[in-house]
Design a protein that fits this description.
This is Noncanonical pyrimidine nucleotidase, YjjG family. Pfam families: Hydrolase. InterPro entries: HAD-like_sf, HAD-SF_hydro_IA, HAD-SF_hydro_IA_YjjG/PynA, HAD_sf, PGP-like_dom2, Pyrimidine_5'-ntase_YjjG. GO terms for molecular function: 5'-nucleotidase activity. By secondary structure, the protein is an alpha/beta fold. It has two domains: 137 residues, HAD superfamily/HAD-like (Rossmann fold); 87 residues, Putative phosphatase, domain 2 (DNA polymerase, domain 1), CATH 1.10.150.240. Helices cover 45% and strands 12% of the residues. It is built from ten helices and six strands; from the N terminus they run E-H-H-H-H-H-E-H-E-H-H-E-H-E-E-H. The chain has a six-stranded parallel beta sheet, sandwiched between helices. The longest helix has 20 residues. The chain is elongated. It starts with 5 loop residues before the first strand and ends with a helix.
Length: 233
């Protein structure tokens, strides 16, 4: 294995458990906004529909097909109208309530702190995320991840989104490190793995659900639990 000096982490779905935190938030909003009163769907259907809509909107955002504002403004409208509500029935303020509450949730993936404690004395650790600056910094602080990372680069602050190599180069310039001395850890094959590869950076594909997908090229490494990083590094 190469000698790495810096490790770049994605945040959502890699360290911060987006699915668990989002699910908790959506169940709270279902009660808070009285969505049961419409009699059209239960809380579980609400969560599943939101997950479906949000995943597809994020894919469009990562590909540059929609802007941040459209993603934030449309996901609850698309979710709730898809469940049978009329547009005028979508509760005012539900999107803002989600944005206020979800980033304060604290669930991280198993072994996240153990692995970061192990890696921090040996490597420079950094965050590279397509998430929005305001929400990402709240997530990192609320979940006690803030003390581990020297640089936290969001797509907002650098003007580019993974897999655009310019986002990776932006971080490398900030830390004055060559790509061959870095390792990228992330769950999104297109954004994290292909983006890092195109930038000359080795990759660790974090695939906890062991999803099999046809790919033209394999990642440098693949793991299913963060604890495996301790065995590798």
């Amino acid at each position: 294995m190469k000698t790495y000096t810096h490790i770049l982490f994605d945040l959502d779905h890699t360290l911060w458990d987006f699915e668990k935190n989002s699910e908790e938030t959506l169940y709270t909003l279902y009660e808070q906004f009285g969505l049961a009163s419409f009699g059209k769907f239960d809380s579980n259907s609400f969560y599943k529909k939101y997950k479906f809509v949000n995943t597809r909107l994020w894919d469009m955002y990562n590909k540059g097909r929609i802007k941040q504002a459209e993603l934030r403004e449309s996901r609850f409208v698309k979710t709730l109208t898809g469940l049978g509500l009329e547009p005028h029935e979508v509760p005012q303020g539900i999107s803002e309530a989600y944005l206020d509450l979800c980033p304060t949730k604290t669930a991280v993936f198993p072994f996240a702190f153990e692995v970061l404690d192990y890696l921090q004395p040996k490597y420079g650790l950094h965050i590279l995320t397509n998430g929005f600056k305001d929400a990402q910094h709240v997530k990192i602080t609320s979940s006690n991840l803030h003390g581990y990372f020297k640089e936290i680069v969001t797509s907002d602050c650098c003007g580019y989104k993974k897999p655009d190599r310019r986002m990776f180069e932006y971080l490398l310039d900030r830390i004055s490190v060559k790509p061959e001395n870095c390792l990228m850890v992330g769950d999104n094959y297109e954004c994290d793995i292909e983006g890092a590869r195109d930038s000359g950076i080795d990759q660790v594909f974090f695939n906890p659900e062991k999803i099999k997908k046809r790919r033209s090229l394999k990642p440098t490494y693949e793991i299913h639990c963060l604890s495996q990083l301790k065995e590798m590094l």
